[in-house]
Structure formats: C-alpha cells, structure tokens
Amino acid sequence: MSVFRSIWDFLLPRRASTQTWMVLTFALFVGVAVVGVGLYVVLVLRGEMRTSMQQTLQDQADRIAVQVAQEPSPERRHRIVDNLTELSDLSIALVTPDTTYRPSAQTPHPLPADSLADVSALRTMEAESARFTYLENAEGEPFFVATLYRPTANLIVQVGQPPPPLYNLARRSQVVLVLGMILALMLSLIGSFIAAYQVTTPLTRISDTARRVADGEFAGKIRVDSRAAEFQDLAESLNRASDAFREKIDELERMTRLQSEFIGNVSHEVRNPIFSISGYLEALGTPGLDDDQRKMYAEKALTNLNRLQNLFNDLIDIARLEYREDLINRSVFDLKDLVNEVTEMLRPKAEEKGLDLQADVPQFFVRADRSRIRQVLTNLIENGIAYTGSGSVRCRLQRRLDKVRIEIVDTGQGIDEDHLDRIFERFYRVDPDRSRESGGTGLGLSIVKQILQAHGEEIHVESTKGRGTRFWFELPYESEPEPEVVEA
What we know:
Beta-Lactamase, Heat Shock Protein 90, seven-stranded mixed β-sheet
C-alpha cells in the first residue's frame, strides 16, 4: 500500500507548479488515448484482419472441396486442382486415403513442406472441420494456410496464400498509425510544455509583483509578454490597482504628515494665547499697579482671549464643513447687496491703513448659502487688507455663461510662487510674524476653501511678487426671482 501511495504521489504530487500540472494533464489524457488506440490497433484490428483472411481461405477451400468431392475419379480430381492452381495464385494440396497430391506445375507461392498434411491427418481431423496456420515460406514471407476436412468425401483440402496487397497495406497502416500516435503524444507533451510556459510565465510575474506590493513596493509595473487578452487585461487591472493603492498610500502619508503638522500648529497657536493670558493675569495680581497698567493688562488678556476664541470657532467651522455638507443652505440672493454689506463692514479697517476699498459691482443673483459666502468674502477682503500696505483692494463681479465670477484683487506685496500651492493649508502663513500681529488664526483661507468645496466650487489664486494678488471663485447664476405678491 505504501509503495502504491509513493507511486501515486510521484505521478500526481500534492503540490506542484501549474506548468507541471498542465503537462501531467496533457500526458494523462493524450497518453490514455494513444494507449487505447494502440491496443486496439495491435490486438483487435490485427486479430480481425487475420480472422478475415482465415475466413476467406476457408471459403475458397470449401468451394474447392465441393468441386473435388463431386468427381469420383482421382485423375479428374487432380485435374481440377491443377486448373485452379493455374487460374489463381493459390497453393492447393489434396489429401485422400490413397495419396497426397500437389500440382506438378510451379506455383509462385508453394505450400511450405512443414505445413503439408499427409494421409495420417485424415484420422486426426475426424473431429475437426478446419485448421489454420500462419507461418513463413521459403523466402521468409508470411504465409496463411487453411486445412479443411470433408468427412463425407473423406478428403482434406489445403489452401495456402501469402497476404494480399490490401492485407499488407493494412499492416503498414497499423505501423504508421502506432508511430503517429506516439508522435502525437510527444508533440502534445511539447505543446503542453509550451502552452504551460505561456500561461505560467505571466502568472509568475504577476505573483512576483503581488508579493512586492504586499511588501510595500509599488514602483514596479507588471509587463506581460503574452498575446492572451485575459492576461493583458489582468496585468492592466493589477497595474491600475497598484497605482490606486500607491496614490492612496501617498495620500494617507500626506494626510498623516498634515495631521502631525496640524496638531503641532494647534498646540502652538493655543499655547501662545494661554501663556499670554496667564502672564497678564499674574501681572494684574502684582501689588502697586496703577489703574492704567491694570487696564492695559486686562485689555491685552482680553485680546488674547478673543484670539483664542476665534481660533476655536474657526476650527469648529472647518470640522463641521468637512463632515457635514448639509450645513450648506442654498438660496437665491442678490450678490451685489452682499458685497456692499461686507465692504461697508470692512471699510473702516481699510481706511485705517489708507487703502481704497472698491466695490462698484453690477447686480447678479446667485444660488448659494448667503451666510457662508459672506464669510468667504469677509476672509478674502480682510486678507487683502492685511497684506496690502498701500493702494487698493477691489471686489469685481462678472457673468460667465451660467456662472458668476467673484474676484478679490489687491495691490499688496504679492505671494511667492513657492507658497501658492500651500496658502490654503491650515495654519500656513506666508509671513507668520505679520499674521500674528494682525490677530489672524491662519485658518481663514482654509475655511474659504472648505466652504467653496462644500458648494462644489474651487478657489483660485494668481499673484505676482511686489504687484499684488487676485483670488477668484464662481457661483451658479440665477435669474432675478419674481417679487412676492402681498395680498391685501
């Protein structure tokens, strides 16, 4: 049992490569077919051919025996045998109780001497009707002999004949068929090896790439040198998946980095006002301070407290906008009215710096959240005022197809190109010292970006160092609503 198990495991291993299994499968199925056909050709077909040859000789011997048995005279019997021998390529012998007769004429294929029956055979064949012999003649060629016993006439007729051309053709066809099946088996094994190689090579490369991806290596690409569409599609899909994973991992790493920076910035931004408030409160407890000093310390503590409150309010706004876009309540409103409202609110701050705040805009109606767009305009205009030393800050409106473009343009110091990609990040400041002096939290532009993204829009910026900056965004245009009719 153990030997059989060992042979079975050797032929069909428990774990083997796909190429091995494909070759074994081809060998098994094609080999079974080859062996089956070979056995049929060698055993069944060859036996049927001999049976057919024997039946033919028996029929001929039977006809000759009938003709001979009708003649009582030995001379006439011998003449019949001579005539049949001359007219056909058969070798004939006639055995009677008196003698064994063979034609005197030379036949092309005489009966071999060792196959000839004698008078004594009449006694041994009493219980038999026919006997067949397959042997070789004097030239070494195959020869068939049929010996037929006629008990009614008490004679034996022997008929011999070499294989006919059709028989030889069939034998050669058998050999060719067997050789062809062996060649087919060999070619099938070679073909299975090539096919398995074509299948397993792309699979091996895909497996190697998947292993590298599992180990965290995303740089490589799967390149499959195969004409099979399935492998090409699989490689393309895996490459796309690898690219997607790489992008997501890069994004996660970037978000992790930004999160770390954000936590560091928040702790830094919160720590400074808290320390300042703590210092001013301790100073208020110092004995001997006059009223002006106490008032100054209290005002500075209150300023830092307001700064801290603004910081937390901005952080709450960003978090709410990130996780709850349903906070955007869209409605149709007059954008010109909103721009005038914001500019009038911020005009004193601009005049304090000697800036010209311009907002002569046409009337357009848009669909958006009015309070959130007010926050966007306020942050952008305040940002322009904060970074403009002299000149102007302008707000412009322009209709562009089904959108209204809002632009905030200043003549300030501008922003270096290296900073443009990061100014919308949280706590990112082009000029940190100046931003903190102006009381900014560093979250204004980040809030602008979040609000507009919640509206499905983007904020854009252009800037030239020393010449100014332009921010712009777009909102969906709406036609002027019909005035409500008040019933009397």
